[in-house]
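User: My collaborator and I are trying to settle a disagreement about how two of our proteins should look. Neither of us wants to argue from intuition anymore, so we agreed to look at predicted structures for both before our next call. Could you fold the first one, then the second, and keep them clearly separated?

Assistant: That sounds like a sensible way to settle it. I'll keep them separate. The first protein:
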Amino acid sequence: MTVHAAHAAVLAAAPVTPVGPGLIGFLVVAAIGVALYFLIRSMNKQMSRIEVPREGEPERPESEARPQDEPR
């Protein structure tokens, strides 16, 4: 008996069971998607708070700058 024939005999004798990610796999992927949504939303909020000086605008002195300790 050759190796391929022996391998085919073992595969034929093995029971056929459907194996898949199932509900737990779907819930894990869905949770990662929800976490990614909130992470991107938070990042966009933080990026919008950054003040970038425009070309042609003089830089403001520190006394005129918005204090960072005040909550919005």
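The second protein, kept apart from the first:
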Amino acid sequence: MKEVIIIEDEYDCLSILQEFNINQQYEKISTSQLKNLASNIRRMKDLKQLNIILNRNQIQDLGQILGQSIQYCSKLQKLKLDLSDNNLNQAGMFEISKIFKKCQQISDLYLNLKQLQIKSFYQYPSSANQIGEKGAQYFGQGIIHCQNLMSLYLDLSEIDINHEGFCWIGSGISLCQNLQRLCLQITNSRISQQSVHELMKDFCKLKMLSNLEIDFYNTFISNNTFIEIGNGVSRLQGSIQQFFLTTKYLKFTFAQKELNILKMYSYAEIGIQALQEFQLLITKCILLTEFSLYYLFFTNKELECLGKFLANLPSLQSFNYILNSSNNYEKTNIISFMREITSSKSLQNINIDMRNNQIYHDISNLNLIYELSFPLQLKSLNLQLQSCSSDCICYKKVFSSLDHLSQLEVKY
């Protein structure tokens, strides 16, 4: 086991230290060792960047000990606290929230409060992080003091927070008007549809927000909620450039039209009508530069429709489509899709991963690729076609003729 070092500092060098990092994950450090660490941090008056990783330590009074010490670092600009899988309680969250009031220069905050992995989805062990509604309230009331905050990563995965708690969190974040990047992890959660709706309403108030990432992995989200998420993103049309939404392994149909704003993790099908509605919504986001679809299956007709839509996004520069090992029932016609998307006037990078799928490779259709007029601004084309078909070698031969690309990679 690693020992937390007690620094003998005869000349008080800690008082001028500007960056401090400690990684004690899985090390099971004791409360006394943590107190020694906190004592050293308390002396770092000029500290601007602090990174502490203490996940899976099961430390008693974790939040109280760390929170009370970090509050002395009033010049902090970047703070990373990974306190996942510990015994964080409401009293601990109260002290952590006081950090935000005392350290108002923080511009970059990473806070991981994820609780223990559990066998039963509905059983929360007494040893897990349990901040509850009150802890969420402390966070919401504290974060409003960070008016210089530009980037926030908050992981609340598997934590039992009720609707009122999420409202406190959303309302607090909404008052950080300089926030440009927000990543919220709520995986394996029992968050209500009403809570998601309120969160999106609050996030729409962030007029500087350009990058929004929400992870609902293994969290139950209704169709209507996806519509609210899509509408929320469309109201950020004046600033949003990147939006990532994760729901891997959840199966939906109609609601997928709102799900694939930029990045989507889910084996699912949506239908042509839903896709068209989705396109009408996203066309409002004229600053969109990168579009990614992860594990979302399209029929060939839908894929062709998607290609036309992408070609008309005025600022789109990068497109990524990942459908690795989806075992879909229809052979995908990459050529037809490429014929549409390459008419874009702005697209520079294309990345398509279709490994372990069925690829349509009719040679008569394949010959149509020679008729494509690839835009001169296209810089990178990457195709992953491994384990699709022996005839996929034809794709490599055809695309290899594109000698104006700075990067070309076709694997089969």
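Some points you might bring to the call about the second protein. Residues 1-118+128-204+215-220 form a domain with the Leucine-rich repeat, LRR (right-handed beta-alpha superhelix) fold (CATH 3.80.10.10). Residues 1-5, 118-127, 249-269 have pLDDT under 50 and may be disordered.
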